[in-house]
Amino acid sequence: MRISEVEIHEFDYEVEDVGTVGGNWVYDPDSTLEPPGFVLTVRTADGTEGHYRGFAFTPPMIAQIEMVAEEHLLGRDPLERKGIWKDLWRALRHTDHLGVGPIDVALWDLAGNHYGESVSKLLGGYRDSLPAYASTMFVDDAGGLDTPTAFADYAETCLERGYDGFKFHGHPESNPDFDVAICEALAERVGDEMDLMIDSSSLYETYADALDVGRAIDDLDFFWYEDPLYDGGVSATMVKKLVSALDTPVLGLEHVRTGPYGTTTHLVEEAADLVRTSAHLDGGITGLMKTANTVESFGLDVELLLGGPAHVHAMSAIRNTNYFEHGLLHPESRWILDQGYEGNPEALGDDGRMHVPDGPGLGVDVDWEFVEARQTGHTRFEN
């Protein structure tokens, strides 16, 4: 079996009542965003296919896929995923490897379709459902999640829906005092019933701000403190200093594109308590599992960045992970989530858990009617 075609369908999503502040997603009742997306298809001569639906960093991902499609994919055995991953990681070493994830996920989907088994089964998955936390959009100034009380009210709603945890993204214009006020409101309202997290998204401009927020949530028993440092956590020295100063676990490496290799450096330096990784950005399911195993060997946990079917399947086979991130959520608007798929594969079950699809491959179907209706580009590489 050989790869005979690599196909990219580009399209745009439609997200109502959402805008951006400094590139961060916020509620805006006067705006409708149409961010770019794509579906990557890897196909063999016998018609076996694998797909990846892209929803973030679409332009660089597509550019990198196009860079490697002919030389590193066409004519290859698609079941030799680790060999292909090895070659792609080297080929894209100068460009942050953003093209590796989509290709690798598509190859896992293809393998599942070939064998008639779910990706979870191929990975040795042993869980059919996962605990989930609600992950909100950023603080807005438009009458949505714009006050500590509004966040506390929404956390209560999410608790009633069955979420075990609640995470908010801080003020997009960097307002540490306001973020602390939200943390205090959440702890008072639902702190005894939900795990609470704050994602500062590398917005705090000084180490002093990051330290002040961390010390405040130390007293509030937060589950984790995510990416507070402005450099994105690249400096292991700086993160180590923050980790040693706080009791709350620091979750990092979301913005560091070095895969399992850079992760090892941070862990040796004790510059992380918890590690972010992603099938989308860190080398697909293969790269994600490499990182998860590396972190497990240090006795620590990994948390997967945002959702998607690939993360559901991967989490089913990872011991050292706590929550599926369900987002970005808001009481007045709905993010991309299931757009581009048939049905609602990323819908929370009645039990408040995310259930693992049991069909072949990723167990989800591309909504080709949606993709074609909003198509903006189409590229095919053929052998």
UniProtKB/TrEMBL annotation:
Cofactor(s) needed: Mg(2+)
Occurrences of domain Mandelate racemase/muconate lactonizing enzyme C-terminal (ranges): 148-249
InterPro entries, alphabetized: Enolase-like_C_sf, Enolase-like_N, Enolase_C-like, Mandelate_racemase_C, Mandelate_racemase_N_dom, RHMD-like
Protein name: Enolase C-terminal domain-like protein
One Pfam family per UniProt: MR_MLE_C
Species the sequence originates in: Halospeciosus flavus
Keywords: Magnesium, Metal-binding
Residue ranges that the Swiss-Prot or TrEMBL entry lists as coiled coil: none
Top-level taxon in the UniProt lineage: Archaea
PANTHER family (alphabetical): ENOLASE SUPERFAMILY, MANDELATE RACEMASE (PTHR13794), MITOCHONDRIAL ENOLASE SUPERFAMILY MEMBER 1 (PTHR13794:SF58)
